[in-house]
Amino acid sequence: MQNRLGFLDALRGMAVIWMVIFHFCYDLKNFGFITWDFRSGFWYGFPRVIAFTFLLCVGLSLHYGHIAQFKKKSFLTRAAKLFIASLVISAATYVAFPNAWIYFGTLHCIFVGSVLGLWFVYHRKIAIALMVLIMIAQYILGFDIEWVSANITKQYSMDFIPIYPWFWVILLGIVIAPYLADLRELRKFRSPPFLKWLGLHSLKIYLIHQPVIFASLWLVQYFLR
Questions:
Q1: What is the distance between the alpha carbons of residues 47 and 18, in angstroms, rounded to a whole number?
Q2: pLDDT band at residue 175, thresholds of 50, 70 and 90?
């Protein structure tokens, strides 16, 4: 199991690095240091790749952590941390950015997706069926994130990751987890220590990196006046 989780730590650690890079660049634009377009092209797709990676890790973690036996204490502890962290993010952004506060962002989706996804760890066929249905609804029938934003909520948010349709990514992680574990290269893979550390502390980094970046850029802007 330890070797099996090596690639997962590395994947989550890479997602943390990408997240910090994106938020640093996004804040550079907000402070007027750059004029890049974040509404199209690479900088539009990049955060969606990051969200995809985090949610895929959620599905993988659910399988590897609970397929042999449901670990009630660790699951509830992690769920409680995610729930509290989600409330903190919502409250802080509501105070700082009332017109774009985060009411259902990445952490909220991870929390709800973890709670819902646990059942599917033990019902893989249903997980596959639901994943396919969501993907059909999103990519063929047009019930995508834009549809959710237009018909379910009118409130703009700087980080909106609704459980539908993003839940299919968590289901994907649950579905492919046993196949990845069977790959010899991944069984033997050991995460570089730095990526492993980032993966193990991803929630803490998620909570503190933006205030640190924001405060640092504010100071730079202040002294450059």
A1: 8
A2: very high
